[in-house]
Amino acid sequence: MQTGTALKEKAEKAITKVAMYGEDFDLNEFEVGTREVPLTDDLEDLDSDLKQTLVNVGVLPDEKDRSGSFLMLDNAISHSSISDPDIELMSLHEAMEKHDWLEDYSWKLVSVDADKYTAKSYLENANGYFIRAPAGKKSSMPVQTCLVMGHKDATQTVHNILIVEEDAQLDVITGCTTKKGVERAMHLGISEIYVKKGGVLNFTMIHNWAEDIGVRPRTAIHLEEGATFVNNYILLKPVRSIQSYPTAILAGEGAFARFHTIAVAHPGSELDLGSRVLFNAPNTKAELVSRTITTGGKITARGEMVANELHSKGHLECHGLVLSNKGTQRAIPILEANVDDVELTHEAAVGRIAKEQVEYLMARGLSEENAVGMIVRGFLDVGITGLPEELAADIDKTIAQIGKDAI
Amino acid sequence: MLEVKDLVVEIGGRTILNKVNLKVEQGSTTVLFGPNGAGKSALLMTIMGFSGYNVVSGQIIFNGEDITSLSVDERAKRGLGIMTQRPPNMTGVKLENLVNAISTEDSLDTDAIAKKLDMERFMERDVNVGFSGGEIKRSELLQLSAQNPCLYLLDEPESGVDLVSIEEIGKTIDELLASRSKCFVDHNKRGNSALVITHTGQVLDYVEPDMGYILCNGTVVCKGHPREMLKEIKSQGYGECIKCKRGQL
User: Is the CB of A64 inside 8 Å of chain B's CB atoms?
Assistant: First the structure.
């Protein structure tokens, strides 16, 4: 086991290490985000702008149909409450103090020296949320977490740990966003997720940034025998650069992972989004589905599946729509089989909306704008359910605007 | 209702329709016969206004208005509705959403028609994706019932459909033609008009035709009684259309 000192040394050595993908940000250009943040007893007490910001990433201030809520502002916790007595929700720092055993889960799936972003997060002793569903506990309502950047030209570093114990089930909706007026900032987020034997985690993440925000999440998920992890990722608004490549490790027989990604690259946005699955146990399965649209930004949709054990079965689907001459879509699917008797398939397509489809709908009386909107909405519909109505309405509005702009 | 005047159409620089003249009277059903490649589908697609069918000269008049340069949706709004032979796969577009999107206060009872056409279980499916030939036609008819056009452009409604479905589709077409649309005029025997392409004539077992045209090599060569025409085509093939040209024009 690596000691804190050893990790610190590794992190220090990696503090300028350029990440494998995405624009290289000079973190020295940003101030360290504040840890002095106002505490909020009730999310309803937040000012109306901030409440709307939360709603736009699926986080409901009235906490209706939520079993718990967590709000991190800049680098500290503003609110944490849980109504379900069986679920643990608190800040990671608090949890580390409470549970000695949590050491064994921290910085185990993500290396401190992966790149400068992980190194900085480690060296800053980043705080974040800790959620744990105890064995056999099936949570009926989702826990909502929200990470908000409140200051311009600052960094937010986050470290989250989620644990779904044996045969437990947990739904999490997490929204990451910026306060109104925070155009330039940097979000670094480490998430280490453990789904134990027979456990189920449905994890939905909504990102909603601003034009000059850099985002570098570093996520890994460890799945034991018969465990299920479903990840939904939604990004529809402008951002400067996001580079993310979460890895699911299917470590136990029969484990299953699904990644759904829907993303729109607006002019000036650079999205490098991928997901990776390591099939490290027999009879494991995975499904990676990505639907991306460029209206002028650059998108790289990566997907990687590595089959290391027999009877691994995976399908990878990257579909990209190009709705502007200035946009770029790159789909990079990677399939790797290291044993025989595995089945990995992929399907990738990038291109514009077929005119034939638009005219088919127009021949039924829909205007070109409505026809394109309907096709775009259908394209992005990968079956993500359980989104709050308010968010669904905002998504609809965004998609309608994309349809309008596409003509 | 519809008048096509001296219509010349090119696709990719190649003339596909040459001086086509044709009329569809209000409340009547006009049948378009002709061998493969004669330009029948191209004529329907041009009347609807699909891109790629470049009108070089001539006019398309609908209800007294020149619609030759109108967009597809403008034509649909004026009361044209089409069932093409091979509609595109609409991945992600659910049939129910589409029917809702095109429904207006003029729509027919789509719930009842969906039930009658046994399409209820397809409402959550992506339009045309994995549909069989008959399912495509039924889905098209359901969409048309939501649209409730005055003029139906039907491109081989019986193709790729099994015999049982043909009856269902034929009867539904007949009902749609008889129903009330915004163009309904009291003295007409039927509410709506139709321009129907058929090779086999099977659809005419359910829909009474009033007028027939034969299209050969991109132009109209015969006009006459549709059932007589069908009889001749069935017994003598399209060699007849040349004779007809000599005899009539």
Answer: no
Of A356, A364, A374, the CB nearest to B88: A356
Confidence check: pLDDT of A290 > 50: yes
Residue A163's contacts (CB-CB under 8 Å, 6 or more residues apart) are A105, A131, A132, A133, A193, A194, A196
SS3 (DSSP) at A115:
coil
Average pLDDT of every residue of chain A: 94
Assign residue A93 a region: left if phi > 0, alpha if psi is -120 to 50, beta otherwise? alpha
CB A224 within 8 A of CB A250: no
Select the more confidently predicted residue: A203 or B35. Answer: A203
Strand, helix or coil for residue B92: strand
B82 touches chain A (CB under 8 A): yes
Question: Looking at CA atoms only, how far is residue B102 from chain A in angstroms?
Answer: 6
Alpha helices per DSSP H over chain B: 40-48, 72-78, 95-102, 110-116, 133-147, 163-178, 226-236, 239-248
User: Does the pLDDT at position B32 exceed 60?
Assistant: yes
The answer, for A371 touching chain B at a CB cutoff of 8 Å, is yes
Q: Return the percentage of chain B with pLDDT > 90, whole number.
A: 71
Please report the domains of chain B, with CATH numbers, ordered by start residue. Answer: 26-38+71-248 (3.40.50.300)
Query: What is the predicted pLDDT for the residue at B249?
Result: 41
**B223-238 average pLDDT score:** 86
Cβ contact, residue pair B73, A365, below 8 Å = yes
- By Cβ distance, the residue of B51, B92, B143 closest to A364 is B143
Domain boundaries, chain A: 4-353, 354-407
Distance from CA of A383 to the nearest CA of B (A): 10
User: Of A119, A116, A143, A121, which is closest to residue A132 (Cα–Cα)?
Assistant: A143
- Return the pLDDT at B241: 60
pLDDT level of residue B243 (50, 70, 90 thresholds) = low
Higher pLDDT, B191 or A334: A334
Decide if B94 and A378 are in contact by the 8 Å CB cutoff: yes
Q: Is A354 on the interface with B (CB under 8 A)?
A: yes
